[in-house]
Amino acid sequence: MYRNIYSFYKPTRSFRVDNSFAIGGLASAFSGPLILGLYWMRTNEYGAAAGMVSGMLTYILGAGGYAPITMGMNAIVIALIVSGILTVGVSLATPKRQRA
Questions:
Q1: Distance, CA of 86 to CA of 80 (rounded, Å)
Q2: pLDDT at res. 52
Q3: Percent helix, strand, coil in the chain (nearest 5)?
Q4: Cβ atoms within 10 Å, residue 23
Q5: What ranges in the chain are assigned the alpha helix state H?
Q6: Are residues 32 and 51 in contact, defined by beta-carbon separation less than 8 angstroms?
Q7: From CA 65, how far away is CA 78, in angstroms rounded?
Q8: Structural domain boundaries of the chain?
Q9: Could you tell me the pLDDT band of residue 51, with boundaries at 50, 70 and 90?
Q10: Cβ count near 96 (within 10 Å)
Q11: Taking a C-beta distance cutoff of 8 angstroms, is the pair 48, 37 a contact?
């Protein structure tokens, strides 16, 4: 019982790594499309989906060490940039939706 209480004060390494991947991955996936969707009227669902998928994959590849794309920065910085660029690019490439 005391061991379980102690784990709240000093979490294991795997718990910290899992939380880091979860928070970083979600932030990199949803931040770019969410902010662009709020303030840029041209954002559409295709651009948002492309930004979410690319942000998550870029974060996993960078933070996991599978691809040397971070250039010394945190992987979330590169993932946010890629997510934003792809959200804008795909939104501009797809046809503008008609308002009902």
A1: 10
A2: 94
A3: 75, 0, 25
A4: 11
A5: 2-9, 13-39, 45-63, 75-93
A6: yes
A7: 13
A8: 19-93
A9: very high
A10: 10
A11: yes
